[in-house]
């Protein structure tokens, strides 16, 4: 059996910019300094308000763990990535935050080496009136949050 070192994603989708940091957390040496026009570690930043798409938002809100993150951020405070106490590993939590960010549901900003997350409530309300309120009401009512919430 031939073993090939894993240097990227199957199909060669990486452009090499991830080689030094990839999706590693900021404590791994990459810091919290986004590239110009890019988010942390080269990931795309959240879409502008007019670029938020309903399908992407609904997909992002379809996961019980992402709903827990949104419900936590609904209080209006900024929360660091590690504060959500989800029953998953750090990389999975990072994935869920990325899905929410790329859909336009949350905003992430750097404060030193910490990434702070906040809900894009005003932008979502302007784009899809009543959607976030309905989702949060369902979460508060116990629907769709999943076991362990």
Structural notes for this entry:
With 149 residues, this protein is α+β, with helices and mostly antiparallel strands. It has a domain at 46-140: Arc Repressor Mutant, subunit A (Orthogonal Bundle). Helices cover 32% and strands 9% of the residues. It contains five helices and three strands; from the N terminus they run ααβαββαα. The protein has helices at residues 54-60, 64-73, 90-103, 121-127, 131-140, and strands at 79-80, 106-111, 114-119. The protein has a three-stranded antiparallel β-sheet with strand order 1-3-2. The chain is globular, with a radius of gyration of 17 Å. Residues 3-30 have low confidence and may be disordered.
Topology readout:
Elements: H1 54-60, H2 64-73, E1 79-80, H3 90-103, E2 106-111, E3 114-119, H4 121-127, H5 131-140
Helix pairs in contact: 1-3, 2-5
Name the structural class: alpha+beta
Largest sheet: 3 strands, antiparallel
Number of strands: 3
CATH class of the domain at 46-140: Mainly Alpha
| Spans of at least 5 consecutive residues with low confidence | 3-30
Number of helices: 5
Give the overall average pLDDT: 77
In which range does the helix fraction lie? 25-40%
Q: What general form does the structure show?
A: globular
Rg? 17 Å
From the coordinates shown, what is the CATH architecture of the domain at 46-140?
A: Orthogonal Bundle
Distance between the termini: 45 Å
H-E string: HHEHEEHH
Strand order of the largest sheet: 1-3-2
- Spell out the CATH superfamily of the domain at 46-140: Winged helix-like DNA-binding domain superfamily/Winged helix DNA-binding domain
What percent strand? 5-15%
CATH topology value of the domain at 46-140: Arc Repressor Mutant, subunit A
């Amino acid at each position: 059996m031939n073993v090939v070192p894993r240097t990227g994603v199957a199909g060669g989708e990486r452009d090499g910019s991830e080689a030094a940091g990839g999706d590693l957390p900021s404590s791994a040496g990459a810091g919290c300094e986004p590239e110009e026009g890019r988010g942390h570690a080269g990931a795309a930043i959240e879409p502008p308000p007019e670029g938020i798409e309903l399908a992407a938002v609904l997909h992002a809100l379809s996961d019980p763990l992402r709903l827990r993150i949104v419900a936590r951020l609904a209080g209006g405070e900024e929360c660091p990535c590690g504060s959500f106490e989800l029953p998953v590993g750090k990389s999975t939590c990072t994935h869920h935050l990325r899905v929410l960010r790329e859909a336009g549901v949350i905003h992430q900003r750097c404060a030193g080496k910490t990434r702070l997350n906040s809900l894009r409530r005003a932008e979502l309300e302007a784009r899809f009136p009543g959607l976030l309120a309905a989702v949060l009401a369902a979460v508060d009512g116990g629907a769709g949050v999943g076991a362990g919430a």
